[in-house]
Amino acid sequence: MLRALHWALALLFLLSGALAGSLYSILGVAKDASESDIKRAYRYHPDINPDESAHEKFIEVAKDSETRQIYDRGGEEGLKRHEERKAGGGDPFAQFFGGGRQEPPRGPSVVTNLEVHLADMYTGRTVEFNIPRRVICSHCNGSGAHSPAHIKQCGTCQGQGVVIQKHQVFPGMFTNVQMTCPHCNGQGQSITRQCGKCEGHRVVQTQNTLAINIPGGAPEGFEEVFHGEADESPDYDAGDVIVRVRSRRESSKEWTRKEAGLVGRVTLSVAEALLGFERNLTTLDGRVIPLARGGTTQPGEVEVIEGEGMPSYHDIPQGDMYIEYSVVMPTVVTDATRRKLLDVFSGSGLVRDEL
């Protein structure tokens, strides 16, 4: 595919006025044409320069491996900006004083929060999600025009994007000030008929599907960066999408997280709290942990099970499990039950002063 790009771009720089048209339409091939199709269209094009030295020169100019991707993403304007950046030179003094080669402008990055089940962060999982994204219009390749024929050079600035205006500094003293062309807003061109797909906006709204790999034991706020997946524009390179993962607040309060620890809540009856109990506790990965206590359990008491919390993650060791016990009192006590309880607790003193 890269060699096909070389052939096509050689034609692009060879043909007069090619930058005003579509490379694919000039060659008469589809945008997803194969290498052999592009090469064949180039070879038999009637305007090909027969000079071998010129051919080699054009191949050298078009040797950038990212050029076709840049053209597909940003159209002719994106390709023009790419070539201008490459021509900036490598003079260290020019770079130091603000000249020379400059990095391409980047669009803003996007931060999005993704909520998942706590079990997904415990076991690890790959989650797909959608975010809105503006992408360069595929019909006009980001020009905003219905076709290349509907792009005209701005008559006010003669395609320069700037105009020179004379401003009075003092009486009898004037200075020339360079300003952005008000007619074309610095674009250097005007559009006589807008693209029917993007309505001249050069970008269209889509839904971008991304997939994030959440490792087991990932901390709250775990981040992954998707480079170049933010909004596209012909004027700049796409920024990044930064995804932050957090566990969802479930309606059931059975499991919660406290850093690397897992907190589970077990509700006991009065009989279980007094006489002991046996329970089976199902963990987030489906394992069963038996719980058994033979003595009394106080309301609010916490039992620690070491090594059963969140899995280790990088330098964060495996956490512990904390079981919080609560006791549910009966809402109604029958007379017979009350007499039995009085017999049991008669020696403990039911009436006493607190102060």
Automatic annotation (TrEMBL):
It holds the Pfam family DnaJ_C. A zinc finger (CR-type) spans 124-207. Residues 1-20 form the signal peptide. One of its GO terms (biological process) is protein folding. GO terms for molecular function: Hsp70 protein binding; unfolded protein binding; zinc ion binding. Residues 124-207 form the CR-type domain. The keyword Zinc-finger applies. Residues 22-75 form the J domain. Keywords: Chaperone, Metal-binding, Repeat, Signal, Zinc, Zinc-finger. SUPFAM superfamilies: Chaperone J-domain, DnaJ/Hsp40 cysteine-rich domain, HSP40/DnaJ peptide-binding domain. InterPro entries: DnaJ_C, DnaJ_domain, DNJA1/2-like, HSP40/DnaJ_pept-bd, HSP_DnaJ_Cys-rich_dom, HSP_DnaJ_Cys-rich_dom_sf, J_dom_sf. This is DnaJ-protein scj1. It comes from Apiotrichum porosum.
